[in-house]
Description:
- It is a single chain.
- The chain is 26% helix and 23% strand.
- By secondary structure, it is of the alpha/beta class.
- A hairpin with a 6-residue loop joins strand 10 (186-190) and strand 11 (197-201).
- The protein starts with 5 loop residues before the first strand and ends with a helix.
Amino acid sequence: SPDATRLLVFEKVNGFLHGPAIQAARDALKAMAQRRGWSLTVTDKGGAMTSAYLRQFDAVIWNHVSGDVLTLSQRAAFRGYIEAGGGFVGVHGSGGDPQTFWDWYVDELVGARFKGHPMQPQFQDARIVIQDRASPIVAGLGDGWTMSDEWYSFKNNPRAGGARILATLDERTYAPGDLAMGAVHPIVWARCVGRGRPFFSAIGDRPHAHGVPQHVTLLEQAVTWAADMKATDCRAQAR
């Protein structure tokens, strides 16, 4: 329908390729779109990042995007789209580049710089703790849940840049080693950039993560929030 929420799923990778996870996340998003009546377009082409093309979409989902993927003009078009009121949903690898190619993307849009993840073992069960129950993004998720994944740590806490921390990791439930962040280890958050609504979740390295019911609910509600174009004042909407 003409009123359907229109979503662009962006999958260009010039860095680490989360191949099976990209496929699993795409499948989960397609299932959400069927449930919700969303219109979903998938591309791995940086050429999609033009003002005219982006204007067609309510939100853009970066599905494990990694590496230096956009030209300067494509960056400018995407930044303009966000600041004018577009939505952004970043999934796991989209915030996991050890090198920073685009300061605005990592510092303003995502809001945290990747530090690393444990390797011994790489995949561990950990407890995700819901922090901000007032947010519609985490509605129905209770106190949180436990799952196995690859757990990111960051060089800074995005809360310092104005992000709302929606969920943290309980470091007592896994072994972060020298990547510990302490009592507040952010793992899911949302923020405002201009009139735009960015959301980031560091969950989702393992394909099975995109079938964990709580994580599916989280992403589905995050996309719904990010794509709400009626929210001209992002800060009021985020509350």
